[in-house]
């Protein structure tokens, strides 16, 4: 093989690459925030005393976790437009991502909740905490604290998954790359650059989650667990 | 325009067959490569540990979609003509080797270090102690997460559709392009994926419960 790599051909597109990376980061931040909310709600529903609520949450979680994201996003995006509901592409992307990551987050958070010793909840009841306070301060926050590393990995995986939204022509990093490679015919170089950008975002994200953990869980910081 | 017919269903089932085949190929190749990654990650040579760590960081830091494109265009550039199945299988091999390598490394490292020391006292070589003492114990711990990863693998073969491999997702796209019944077509595709993945998920959960039987809370 005598292939001449030509990265210089990509130089005029540096702003497009960065714009794509920025869209990827935005997609990730919004989906992580909303996905965490869905995750907590579904984890609570999964442990609820109401049978129908438990089953509904379980069905949602199992359906999402056992089907590929690309099928989910096609189902949502093309499905909605077939009944005349044409969402803007980025909205549809966020919608699909939130539904997807919410189910994974729910399973992780539920595992954290199951690991809370029952005595602690009883102690909180004995102290006269309200049901809401018990959920917030004794069950949910400590549960998230326990599973924080797993949540971080799951959210990094979700950031990588945003690349699939390029298949409904979202203009995030991979979508931008697809356009650039069809303009320059420098496919290999384009995807090498984009791969490096994804690695950069991965490290950025791990750093951000570490910093966030330092702020959100001071007790864990004192114990040196983070 | 037309209706969804049995011909379409057979087309989807044919896609499912290729999905299963690609999954098995990826698991086989990825398993072999993943074993090598695991060995390199726990090696006593520092440079091997460093290189393999870098490899894992790169693979786990980039989307599989990009890895698919790189493999597809990379092979083309190298002048190697391969069917889409081979390109997809090679990309999935690299992808799964990093994840499996890390899962297995974790399992090996969770075995008490005294086991290694005992093996050493018995004058076993490092390879002997690994194969005869550590791995049989690590295997038990590694099975549930490995089965769990198979579910990820089956789902991720859907990305082979972007390099034109006619597996289940691509078949669904082809049918949807002519019928434009996305809820129906992608719904059936989702059910077929579910039928493959859910039993694996359940199996993984049962294996995990068995493993933790001794530590189960009342």
Provide a short characterization of the protein structure.
The complex is a heterodimer of chains A (226) and B (218). Chain A is an all-alpha fold and 226 residues long.
Q: How are the secondary structure elements laid out?
A:
The complex is a heterodimer of chains A (226) and B (218).
Chain A: H1 14-46, H2 51-65, H3 69-82, H4 89-114, H5 118-126, H6 131-146, H7 148-161, H8 173-184, H9 187-216, H10 218-222
Helix pairs in contact in A: 1-2, 1-4, 1-8, 2-4, 3-4, 4-6, 4-7, 5-6, 7-9, 8-9
Chain B: H1 6-41, H2 46-60, H3 64-77, H4 84-109, H5 113-121, H6 126-156, H7 168-179, H8 182-211
List keywords for this structure.
A: 226 residues, 10 helices, globular, B: 218 residues, 79% helix
Which consecutive residue ranges of chain A, at least 5 long each, have pLDDT under 50? none
CATH architectural type of chain B: Orthogonal Bundle
CATH class of chain B: Mainly Alpha
- Strand fraction band of chain B? under 5%
Helicity of chain B, as a percent range: over 70%
Mind telling me the CATH superfamily name of chain B?
Answer: MetI-like
The level of helicity of chain A is over 70%
How many helices of chain A in DSSP terms? Answer: 10
- Overall structural class of chain B, as computed from helix and strand content, comes to mainly alpha
The topology string of helices and strands of chain B comes to HHHHHHHH
Radius of gyration of chain B: 21 Å
Count helical runs of chain B. 8
Q: What structural class should be given to the helix and strand makeup of chain A?
A: mainly alpha
Whole-number total of structural domains of chain B: 1
Question: Largest interface, per-chain counts?
Answer: A-B, 37 and 41 residues
Main sheet attributes: strand count, strand direction, barrel closure of chain A: none
Q: Give me the count of strands of chain B.
A: 0
